[in-house]
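From the pipeline queue, job 12 of 40. The input is one protein chain; the requested action is below.

Action: predict structure.
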Amino acid sequence: MDNFAFIIHPIDPRRDVQRKFPLLGKILPVPAIHFLSRFFPPLYISHITGIRSQATGKEVEGWFVACPFTPQRMLTLPSKVVYRKIIATAKMAAQKLGARIVGLGAYTSVVGDGGITIGRSVAVPVTTGDSYTVAVAVEAVKKAAERMEIDLSTATAAVVGATGAIGAVAAELLARDVPQLVLIGRRADRLMAVRSRCEAAGAEVQITSDMNALRQVDLIITVSSALEAIIQPDHLKPGAVVCDVARPRDVSRAVVEQRDDVLVIEGGMVEVPGDVDFHFNFGFPPRMVYACMAETIALALEGRYESYTLGKDLTIAQVQAIEQIARKHGFKLGGFRSFEKAVTDEQIERIKQNARRARSVRSGRLQTTSSIN
């Protein structure tokens, strides 16, 4: 049977360790989890069954395997140490489980050179899943805009983390649909290059490293590699849509707690075709996966055992091709979620009403200030 494996790792140390090892997750303090993660070997997590293509009827199986490093450890340990553990995890999947393609999840896909070194060290193809992640994030933010009655033809969009692999191509795709685009990142040279491509696509582009620029933005895709939340409640305008693709999250939980007039969604939740059973709870509803996981699965269904997405430079052609493959086999956007909870139609309606009131109050204040002046 055709197959795949996907590498996961603990993002929220206590919560994620507890999902696999309930007792350890309860008794170990977070600093101890960070420390001990260096010494844990690669772990087998679960066998994935029931995935079936709607187009061909083909079925594939897969496995979750875990690299035990937390994000903090991946960013603070020497890169050789991190590479060694990820490579060992991929080799375990290929050699012991017989996986024919391996997907890199979360920080295992962004550490170092975006999977290139890992791919060279493993005998089977490796993919980061970034191409399909871009496709799903852009689709999600457009559908959310429609639900929030935001007209793309007059909207301002922003990409936070626009210098990264996902952010750069997402910006270029958004530039085809919105007249104004804000690119936020820390590398000025890279921002300039992304701006040139977005301007060629038709958008007027502003580049900055200042998060306060989001206060005038309608639609946001955020995909930074920050360890802590970087989008706070005061950064957002009423009625804004934020699609958070980053893991760990870029959006502070305080946003959903304090701002009932903005819509925050998790980027990249995809429904898998077939009667899939992951045999492991990674925080998503049944049959749902991250888009990066979906790319790996879609390639197995297509029989394309190749290192589809590696490195820091993606192309629109890659994104469009994997989007077509996924659609062919029956993958689709899996609805909206925010902080691991489904976003209901009723919630969206309340957010829209609250946004209208907030804009009305803001407009009244501006008129009062203008008359005083």
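Job complete. Residues 3-131+270-332 form one domain.
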